[in-house]
Amino acid sequence: MIEIYCLPGTMCDQRLWDSTQAALGQDVVLRPIAIPMEDSIELIVRVLADVLPQQPIHLLGFSMGGYIASAFASQYPQRVCRLMVVSNTSTGLLAAERRQREVALDWVQKQGYRGLPRKKAQAMLGDKHKGNELILDIMKTMDKALGERILIQQLQSSLDRPDLLSYLEQTHLPICFAVGKEDALMPASALEQIENNEHFDLNTAEQCGHMLPLEQPIWLSALIHRFYAEETNRIIK
């Protein structure tokens, strides 16, 4: 059995992984880890260093969780066997995205939070899934369960994001990136940098936006099986 510790994205919880876990079967177990309530990526990583096992682990992160997983692997490469980054490029926020987050943060702090708007949820999905009520319901349910306080904390703590690709390359860890082809949040320049780097494995899911674990769980489960099984096969040999 392969165990993989999983970090979610902004306003996501363990429900993010349910469809992928169902597709994986019993041979691979996803261990959801909540993002610590800290004020910066540095402090979040410091708490994770106490929460996660001391022995080398398989690590997977989605969106904001993908960046945090990258930061953890950069700082503690000896504690990671393999790293998969989903719907993130381990780079800093684009200027437009940072500004959008700052505006959202300011609005929530002044006006309060009334939950994830349907249009915002749909904007994170590929065209095929914008009308998928099951996915939209999961997104809204996760958002409602976490609430305003966690939204503010996650927006504040994730604004400052240095580019981590050069640090990840220096770790010499096996690192796999998975992105949706229709994910507008993925900077083209970063994707090109990843694709042209022999140390990284870039995989693109068709008919998929940002919410890859919800939109393409079968595709993601196949990638997880392939990527993490390589380590098991290497040890057996």
From TrEMBL:
<dbReference type="InterPro" id="IPR050266">
    <property type="entry name" value="AB_hydrolase_sf"/>
</dbReference>
<dbReference type="GO" id="GO:0016787">
    <property type="term" value="F:hydrolase activity"/>
</dbReference>
<protein>
    <submittedName>
        <fullName>Alpha/beta hydrolase</fullName>
    </submittedName>
</protein>
<dbReference type="InterPro" id="IPR000073">
    <property type="entry name" value="AB_hydrolase_1"/>
</dbReference>
<feature type="domain" description="AB hydrolase-1">
    <location>
        <begin position="45"/>
        <end position="120"/>
    </location>
</feature>
<keyword id="KW-0378">Hydrolase</keyword>
<dbReference type="InterPro" id="IPR029058">
    <property type="entry name" value="AB_hydrolase_fold"/>
</dbReference>
<dbReference type="Pfam" id="PF00561">
    <property type="entry name" value="Abhydrolase_1"/>
</dbReference>
